[in-house]
Amino acid sequence: MKNITAFIDQFEKQHRSAACWVYSENDTYTEIEGGGIIRVSKLRSILEHHLHIVIQPIDAGSLDAHLLLPEISMAVPVQFISGKISSFSELNAA
């Protein structure tokens, strides 16, 4: 588990794009408008309007999917499959 600001800073330093989903209903997430691909500037805007956001770097080699919870300022690593969080990864304090 990481502070959301530290997570976004890491994401920004790596100049990454990510696929982004927002909570829909019945424990499912739908891609954000525009095909789901975002940059950090867009992520900051999305955080202001949604309470549960899943992002996964396009090159998922170094960072797994994360559930962003802006209301508690945390980024939690998750296993994300077919629009659903299947499990939470090991939660370590950052």
List keywords for this structure.
8 strands, eight-stranded antiparallel beta sheet, single chain
Would you give an account of this structure?
This protein is an alpha+beta fold and 94 residues long. The protein is built from two helices and eight strands; from the N terminus they run E-H-E-E-E-H-E-E-E-E. The chain has helices spanning 4-13, 40-47; strands spanning 2-3, 18-23, 29-31, 37-38, 53-57, 66-69, 74-81, 84-88. Strands 1, 2, 3, 4, 5, 6, 7 and 8 form an eight-stranded antiparallel beta sheet that branches. A hairpin with a 5-residue loop joins strand 2 and strand 3 (29-31). The longest helix is centred in the N-terminal third of the chain and has 10 residues, at 4-13. The radius of gyration is 12 Å and the shape is globular. The mean pLDDT is 83.
SSE topology sketch:
Elements: E1 2-3, H1 4-13, E2 18-23, E3 29-31, E4 37-38, H2 40-47, E5 53-57, E6 66-69, E7 74-81, E8 84-88
Antiparallel strand pairs: 1-7, 2-3, 2-4, 2-5, 5-6, 6-7, 7-8
- The secondary-structure element order is EHEEEHEEEE
Number of helices: 2
Instruction: Assess the beta-strand content as a share of residues.
Output: 35-45%
Q: What number is the mean pLDDT?
A: 83
Q: How many strand elements?
A: 8
For the biggest sheet, the summary is: 8 strands, antiparallel
Backbone shape: globular
Q: Helix fraction?
A: 10-25%
Radius of gyration: 12 Å
The poorly predicted ranges are none
Helix-strand category: alpha+beta
Quote the distance from N terminus to C terminus.
6 Å
